[in-house]
Amino acid sequence: MIKISIFWSVLKSYIIQKQKEVYAQTNKNITFQNNGRSGYAILKDGNKKTRFYTEVGGGDCIFYMVIPSAELWESQTGYTTAEKDEIVRYIADESLKIQAKTQGCYYKIEETNIVFYQK
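Given the sequence above, the corresponding C-alpha cells read:
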C-alpha cells in the first residue's frame, strides 16, 4: 500500500512539473517599454524574450516596429524562419490591441517593419 502511495505521489509531482513546463513554453505575451518617441515591444514566449524596436510615426502612422529580415530572422530572434509569419502576425495582432485604442486602426506587415495606422 505504501509503495502505491509513493508511486502516485511521484507521478503526480512529475505531471505537475510537466504541465508547468508546457505552460511556460506556450505562454506568449507582449509588453512595451517606451522611452519617449521610441522603445521596444518585448515578446515573452515561455522563458524566451525577444525585443523589437518601435518608434512613433507621423500622419496616419501611429507607430512602427522593426522586425528582422528573413535572412536575419533566426539569428536575431531565435525562432525558425518557418515560425516567422505566425510570430509576426501574433506580435502585430497583440500590439494593435494594446497600443491602438481608437476604432479603425490597422497594420501592414512589410519585410522589415510592421506599420500601425489610424484611419
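The radius of gyration is 20 Å. Try to locate this feature in the C-alpha cell string yourself.
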